[in-house]
């Protein structure tokens, strides 16, 4: 007996005279049957080996060549003289061993190469992504989406499909490989063995008692498992889009401060303004300055200027470079109160003494401090704060007298003391309940090298330094860098009172105002001028250090400004850019690299194990077609005999009947090698029954397609379709934000973060893979049985029946072949198999994890509305015209809290790029709602990135809006300078004190009109105002003066400041103030009765010179005689502006965390606020007032509309001294001159004298003084400034209980005891107050991490699922016919062998002719059904079509043993045949 192995060896060595043009190769082939073609190897067979000695080479294989006669049966022996040689004339037609196409070396090498390319590709993109922090920038283009989402999964699907085909080919050839082994194989591991699923192949690969390990199938199974469980799912998350930060080295420029060194402490008004703004308003004045450090600026050299502002750039970048930083540290220790005693204090030389107190304090280090205070001093009677240098022993009180402070044994260099009132302001006695604390501090100033990082983002810049490095390198600031002593002198000077006037801001009565000295003025403002808060704060030293550091930083900022004009220093640095990039997920990449590498090794092993020398098949053609299998058994009588009587057996019964038999594939035929004896067979049957279910051998035949399986597939497809559709709707309606969707797993190995992995894409890909496996099993089954179904339905040619197979065709190729044969259901199934691969790609691309929002709606009670009830305050009516105005309390209250100062806030926003107030945007302010009533909840858990409760949310609601704006027009008469300018002869010694005046000009100009041109009612307007309705010609008499006027300063005070000199040269200066237009003989705050009252915005530009003294002034004060003279006629642009307050309804969206308005929409036309101007400090007389003995001097209630209060406060802020007004008849210099010592809401610097409103306007034009002379520019900047000021006024000190200046609670009304109006009021309102709804509807949008569904991928998935569902329904319908046509499964070699074993004519054709020659031959027309065999038995099988059909079902024979015996014996009746034939014809299975 010759084995298939020896046969292959001989064939491999039989290479002489091979004729490729033999009859076999000339046969016509079906265009798609690649697997029907013989495999002509290019290499590999030559190394198989030589034939063993004395082994005979068979002369031929019967029936494979059409020119050969059929060989004798296997029972006959080849004549000895013919053994060992090939007969003449047959050497060139010897058949070539066959391999499935995927196991041939070109294809298998291609699969290995493809896997290698995948491995290399993953490694390359992984390395590139790691090195470059991504592959490319994510610009959102279609190419990026395709490349990152579809390409990896598509390649993975193709690769896994190749491994699936490889496993399929190994599985279907495994029985032949076992049969071709030298010892053959038992039927249970060969002829009846099947591996429908991958787990069958896996377990079928392991060794048993009857077989060895099938390495090829085992390795192929592992490759496939790795493919569909790892490669396919993970490919969907290999490449993602995320924000990445990468670095590039860049040349930087750094400010060269050499020219400004040593730093001199010469602060400007703007220096104080910036410092105060930062401390009180927490505004960033420059990105390079912080509470701890001042960093020397640097910037990329492509920027052509030094960026010194609070926001450097809106580009998202981080700059890194080495630079220098400055810092201040205060080392403080507490001072403890040691005691107080009464003493006598001298008021000065030649003056009396007064009673005082001595206060003692000491520290643990031994420092002792003694305060000697007069009982009536401000510090003693009102409390307050002092902060001064240790060497300073004098406290200058507001009343002009001094108190003293002495120190002893103090190592520190500065001291701060805080106290509540010490004495009773009425009796001057020492109080018993006072509290006094203090600290003694040593200040240290450092400079050091450090690494600074500048983080740029949208609207924000944050500069940080490497603190450990700075602390290592810092040194005390050298004298050649900063003059520290000069800095301390300025820090503790009295100038702070000029900029933060505690006396004026804390209270209108100076004897009730807390005292403050030096920087303690700013420190007190931080505590709302409350001594009680100061003494209670244990961390006051931290605020002291913050103030000292900020003042030094702002002085450095001035030096930065000065040095920015010099050539910068080049320094190296780096730029970190935050860019949305396409990146490779390291965890996924590493996993794929490992898995694909393992698969490569397994593929290489498969290449070795599947070579014919290792795994001979003994085949010369694809055994899948029934005719090919018939060829393998046609010459084996024993094999035919063993199958001939088993045609009526079910699959289980067939396995039982063949159990224990051993077959061998030799010389192109399957030969029965051994048949066990009775006892062995009995043992085998017992083993089979123990191994299989005890009822399997008695069950009916298994159906080809089980209804419940197909129904389950349809249900699965429908559920997935419904799930995707529901998720698609939910994604569009609300978003997929729940934890189950967005949870990400962060993977790290040994502390190395490999990135987060979201299971969503992996799960959906696995679902798609499972559907693909399920559909693939149906596809494989139908492709296997389709030829048999065609044969069972009707007689068909060999090319459609016995000579065709679809096992070697896949996807669209199989669909194309099936369509040519009109196998329409198979077309749908194979097309569906192709669509399943697309479905897998689409499912893997279905999800994208990214930021999004989730919406909800709630209602909360409305608490505020726009004000229609005037504001209520109290005031004391003046006892005489010389008393201060009763309006002073209401006006002063607007400025008491510097931390929430609305004027400072607006100036900071406009000049220092500060933020808008909450609930405000683009000039509009919106009525607030209490968003704290929104329930807080945790919406999701996204894994390691989980945040606390979602406090950040966007809220959309409808509310009322209000804004202030201006309508301005320029004054046309200003071109006539004689109406507002006086020309002086400065050499006239009758007018001017030539000795006391500068000897610079001979003629000059002064703003305003001289005294001799004004009538007696307007004498106070001398050279400080101009009339707004002047006569058509130059004034010729005092009678011409009447009507409204406006002042150059805030009120009718003469300007004194500010000239601009550099090295003795006088340069251009600017003056700008806003002032009321008011009737003659009126003064602030009584500006008239017409509301809204117009005001004037002025900008004056020229060359002023200070210090010109007159000789004949009305007053004797030297100060009053000083005049500001302009060298040339100054230019002035002035606008007559009418304020307008208007309201509207709006829909707004804002950030609930900070009230920042994100967007808004004004839903109706703005309308004038009718309630803004109704009450102008209307006086209400209480019962107490009516009982007062004084007609005019009593306390009263005052009602003021919000528009009136805003405008009066705004236009009086720049003159804090005049909040209470200048009383009529006052003829003191302080009533006529601007107070240059008051700069609380002013900026006075060399060349600049403006209020904060005009300073803001100047900042809007980047300090271009000339630009504001243009009326259009002046109006534009004034408009924005006024609107911003009103925004801050609206939002100042708003509470939900009491409202604010412009908002009120919904139930606010006047108290019952308000009294009666002093002047009867007209209660008829123009409009009725609005009645808003009781609730507010909030539409809440919370930021969440969303799992977003790709719309194209979702539609592709749903359409493909719909196709698969429709196809599965068609298959369910068709399966009923298929199960009737083919009542048993045809999976194994034995299943096919029993169908052809009794078909003598078919076997004869198989012996005589090759498969290719009979495909299109009408003689090959065959039918699967009942037929009479040569032995007279009616059997079920495949036979040529002219046989008579037998109409009994196989199922009946499986259930009726008597009929089985009758049919096998041939004893049947004609009635039986005719009856069942009618049944089959009724089902359409037989032709009539």
What secondary-structure arrangement, pairings included, does this model have?
Layout: H1 4-13, H2 105-132, E1 136-137, H3 142-179, E2 185-186, H4 198-204, H5 215-235, E3 239-254, H6 269-281, E4 294-295, E5 298-300, E6 317-346, E7 353-362, E8 368-374, H7 378-382, E9 384-389, E10 394-396, E11 402-408, E12 414-419, E13 436-457, E14 460-465, H8 467-473, E15 475-476, H9 484-491, H10 495-499, H11 502-506, E16 515-517, H12 520-526, H13 531-536, H14 540-563, E17 569-584, H15 586-609, H16 626-633, H17 637-644, H18 651-658, E18 662-666, E19 669-674, H19 678-691, H20 707-733, H21 739-742, E20 745-749, E21 752-757, H22 759-793, H23 811-820, H24 824-844, E22 847-861, E23 864-866, E24 871-876, H25 888-892, H26 902-911, E25 920-921, E26 924-926, E27 954-970, E28 981-985, E29 1003-1007, E30 1025-1027, E31 1044-1047, E32 1061-1062, E33 1065-1066, E34 1069-1072, E35 1074-1076, E36 1078-1079, E37 1095-1102, E38 1104-1109, E39 1122-1126, E40 1131-1151, E41 1157-1162, E42 1167-1168, E43 1178-1181, H27 1183-1186, E44 1195-1200, H28 1202-1212, E45 1242-1245, E46 1248-1251, H29 1252-1260, H30 1271-1290, E47 1303-1305, E48 1316-1317, E49 1335-1349, H31 1351-1381, ...
């Amino acid at each position: 007996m010759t084995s298939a192995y020896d046969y292959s060896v001989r064939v491999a060595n039989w290479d002489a005279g091979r004729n490729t043009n033999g009859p076999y190769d000339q046969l016509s082939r079906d265009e798609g049957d690649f697997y029907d073609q013989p495999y002509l190897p290019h290499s590999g067979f030559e190394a198989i080996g030589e034939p063993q000695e004395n082994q005979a080479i068979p002369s031929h294989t019967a029936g494979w060549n059409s020119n050969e006669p059929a060989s004798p049966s296997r029972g006959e022996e080849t004549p000895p003289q013919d053994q060992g040689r090939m007969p003449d004339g047959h050497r060139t037609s010897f058949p070539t061993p066959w391999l499935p196409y995927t196991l041939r070396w070109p294809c298998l090498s291609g699969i290995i190469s493809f896997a290698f390319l995948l491995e290399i590709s993953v490694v390359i993109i992984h390395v590139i992504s790691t090195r470059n922090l991504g592959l490319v920038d994510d610009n959102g283009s279609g190419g990026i989406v395709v490349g990152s989402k579809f390409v990896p999964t598509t390649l993975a699907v193709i690769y896994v499909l190749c491994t699936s085909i490889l496993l399929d080919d190994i599985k279907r050839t495994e029985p032949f490989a076992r049969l071709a082994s030298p010892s053959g194989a038992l039927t249970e591991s060969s002829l009846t063995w099947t591996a429908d699923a991958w787990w069958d192949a896996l377990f079928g690969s392991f060794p048993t008692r009857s077989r060895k390990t099938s390495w090829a199938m085992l390795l192929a199974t592992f490759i496939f498992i790795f493919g569909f469980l790892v490669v396919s799912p993970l490919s969907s998350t290999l490449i993602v889009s995320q924000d990445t930060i990468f670095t590039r080295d860049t040349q930087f420029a750094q400010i060269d401060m050499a020219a400004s060194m040593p730093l001199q402490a010469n602060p400007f008004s703007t220096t104080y303004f910036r410092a105060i703004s930062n401390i009180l308003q927490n505004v960033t004045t420059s990105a390079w300055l912080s509470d701890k450090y001042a960093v020397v600026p640097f910037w990329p050299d492509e920027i052509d200027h030094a960026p010194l502002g609070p926001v450097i750039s809106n580009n998202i970048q981080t700059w890194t470079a080495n630079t220098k930083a400055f810092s201040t540290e205060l080392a403080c220790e507490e001072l403890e109160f040691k005691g107080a005693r009464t003493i006598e204090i001298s008021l000065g030389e030649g003056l009396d003494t007064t009673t005082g107190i001595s206060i003692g304090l000491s520290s643990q280090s031994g420092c002792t401090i003694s305060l000697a205070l007069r009982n009536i001093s401000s510090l003693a009677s009102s409390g307050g704060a002092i902060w001064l240098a240790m060497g300073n022993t004098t406290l200058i009180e507001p009343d002009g007298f001094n108190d003293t402070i002495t120190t002893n044994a103090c190592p520190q260099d500065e001291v701060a003391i805080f106290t509540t009132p010490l004495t009773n302001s009425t009796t001057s006695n020492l109080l018993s309940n006072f509290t006094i604390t203090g600290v003694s501090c040593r200040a240290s100033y450092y400079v050091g090298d450090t690494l600074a990082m500048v983080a740029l983002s949208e609207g924000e810049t944050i500069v940080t330094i490497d603190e450990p490095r700075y602390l290592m390198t810092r040194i005390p600031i050298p004298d050649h860098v900063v003059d520290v002593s000069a800095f301390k002198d300025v820090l503790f000077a009295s100038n702070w009172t000029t900029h933060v006037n505690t006396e004026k801001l804390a209270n209108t009565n100076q004897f009730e105002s807390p005292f403050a000295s030096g920087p303690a003025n700013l420190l007190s403002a931080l505590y709302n001028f409350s001594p009680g808060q100061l003494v209670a704060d244990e961390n006051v030293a931290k605020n002291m250090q913050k103030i000292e550091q900020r003042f030094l930083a702002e002085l450095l900022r001035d030096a930065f400004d000065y040095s920015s004009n010099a050539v910068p220093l080049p320094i190296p640095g780096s730029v970190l850019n935050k860019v949305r990039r396409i990146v490779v997920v390291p965890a996924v990449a590493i996993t794929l690299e490992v898995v694909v590498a393992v698969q490569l090794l397994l593929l290489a092993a498969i290449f070795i194990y599947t070579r014919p020398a290792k795994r001979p098949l003994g085949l010369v053609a694809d055994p899948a077609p029934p005719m090919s299998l018939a060829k393998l058994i046609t010459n084996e009588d024993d094999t035919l005999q063993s199958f001939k009587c088993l045609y009526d057996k079910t699959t289980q019964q067939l396995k039982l009947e063949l159990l224990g038999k051993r077959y061998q594939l030799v010389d192109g035929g399957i030969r029965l090698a051994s048949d066990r004896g009775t006892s062995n067979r009995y043992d085998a049957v017992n083993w089979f029954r123990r191994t299989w279910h005890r009822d399997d051998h008695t069950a009916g035949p298994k159906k080809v397609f089980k209804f419940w399986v197909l129904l389950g597939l349809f249900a699965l497809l429908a559920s997935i379709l419904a799930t995707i559709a529901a998720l698609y709707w939910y994604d569009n309606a609300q978003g997929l934000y729940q934890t189950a969707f967005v949870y990400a797993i962060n993977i790290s190995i040994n502390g190395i973060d490999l990135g987060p992995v979201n299971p969503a894409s992996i799960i959906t890909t696995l679902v798609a893979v499972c559907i693909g496996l399920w559909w693939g099993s149906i596809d494989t089954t139908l492709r296997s049985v389709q030829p048999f179904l065609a044969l069972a339905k009707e007689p068909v040619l060999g090319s459609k029946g016995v000579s065709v197979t679809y096992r070697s065709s896949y996807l669209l190729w199989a669909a194309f072949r099936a369509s040519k044969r009109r196998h329409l259901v198979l077309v749908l199934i194979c097309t569906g198999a192709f669509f399943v691969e697309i479905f897998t790609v689409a499912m893997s691309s279905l999800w994208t994890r990214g930021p999004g929002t989730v919406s909800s709606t709630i209602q909360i009670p409305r608490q505020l509305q726009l004000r229609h009830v005037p504001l209520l305050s109290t005031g004391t009516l003046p006892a005489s015209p010389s008393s201060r105005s009763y309006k002073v309390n209401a006006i002063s209250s607007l400025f008491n809290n510097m931390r929430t100062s609305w004027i400072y806030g607006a100036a900071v926003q406009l000049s220092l790029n500060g933020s808008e107030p909450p609930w405000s945007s683009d000039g509009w302010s919106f009525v607030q709602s209490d968003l704290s009533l929104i329930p807080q909840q945790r919406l999701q858990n996204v894994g390691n990135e989980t945040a606390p409760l979602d406090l950040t949310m966007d809220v959309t609601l409808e509310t009322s809006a209000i804004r202030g704006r201006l309508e301005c027009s320029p004054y046309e008469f200003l071109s006539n300078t004689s109406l507002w300018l006086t020309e002086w002869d400065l050499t006239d010694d009758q007018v001017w004190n030539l000795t006391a005046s500068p000897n610079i000009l001979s003629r000059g100009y002064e703003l305003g009109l001289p005294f001799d041109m004004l009538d007696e009612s307007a004498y106070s307007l001398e050279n400080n105002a101009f009339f707004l309705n002047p006569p058509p010609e130059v004034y010729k008499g005092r009678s011409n003066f009447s009507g409204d006027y406006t002042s150059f300063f805030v009120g009718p005070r003469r300007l004194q400041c500010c000239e601009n000199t550099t090295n003795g040269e006088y340069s251009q200066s600017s003056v700008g103030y806003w002032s009321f237009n008011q009737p003659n003989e009126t003064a602030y705050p009584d500006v008239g009765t017409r509301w809204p009252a117009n005001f004037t915005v002025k900008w004056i530009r020229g060359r002023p010179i200070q210090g010109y003294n007159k000789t004949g002034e009305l007053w004797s004060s030297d100060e009053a005689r000083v005049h500001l003279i302009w060298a040339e006629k100054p230019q002035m642009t002035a606008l007559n502006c009418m304020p307008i307050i208007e309201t509207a309804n709006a829909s707004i969206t804002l950030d609930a965390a900070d009230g920042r308005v994100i967007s808004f929409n004004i839903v109706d036309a703005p309308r004038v606020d009718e309630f803004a101007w109704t009450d102008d400090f209307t006086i209400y007389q209480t019962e107490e007032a009516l009982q007062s003995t004084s007609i005019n001097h009593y306390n009263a209630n005052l009602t003021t509309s919000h528009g009136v209060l805003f405008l009066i406060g705004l236009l009086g802020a720049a003159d804090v001294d005049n909040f209470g007004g200048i009383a009529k008849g006052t003829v003191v210099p302080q009533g006529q001159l601007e107070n240059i010592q008051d700069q609380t809401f002013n900026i006075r610097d060399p060349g600049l004298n403006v209020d904060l409103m005009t300073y803001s306007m100047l900042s809007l034009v980047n300090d271009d003084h000339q630009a504001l002379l243009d009326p259009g520019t002046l109006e534009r900047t004034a408009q924005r400034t006024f609107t911003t000021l009103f925004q801050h006024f609206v939002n100042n000190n708003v509470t939900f209980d009491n409202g604010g200046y412009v908002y009120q609670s919904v139930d606010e009304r006047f108290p019952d005891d308000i009294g009666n109006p002093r002047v009867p009021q007209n209660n008829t309102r123009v409009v009725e107050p609005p009645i808003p709804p009781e609730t507010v509807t909030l539409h809440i949008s919370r930021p969440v991490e969303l799992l977003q569904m790709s719309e194209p991928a979702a539609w592709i998935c749903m359409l493909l699922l719909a196709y698969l569902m429709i196809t599965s329904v068609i298959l369910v319908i068709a399966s009923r016919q298929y199960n009737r046509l083919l009542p048993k499964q045809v999976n194994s070699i034995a299943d096919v062998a029993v169908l052809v074993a009794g078909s003598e004519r078919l076997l004869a054709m198989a012996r005589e002719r090759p498969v290719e020659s009979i495909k299109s031959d009408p003689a090959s027309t065959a039918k699967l059904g009942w037929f009479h065999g040569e032995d007279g038995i009616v059997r079920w099988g495949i036979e040529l079509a002219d046989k008579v059909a037998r109409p009994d079902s196989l199922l009946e024979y499986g259930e009726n043993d008597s009929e089985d015996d009758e049919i096998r014996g041939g004893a049947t009746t004609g009635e039986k045949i005719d009856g069942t034939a009618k049944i089959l014809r009724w089902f359409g299975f037989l032709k009539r």
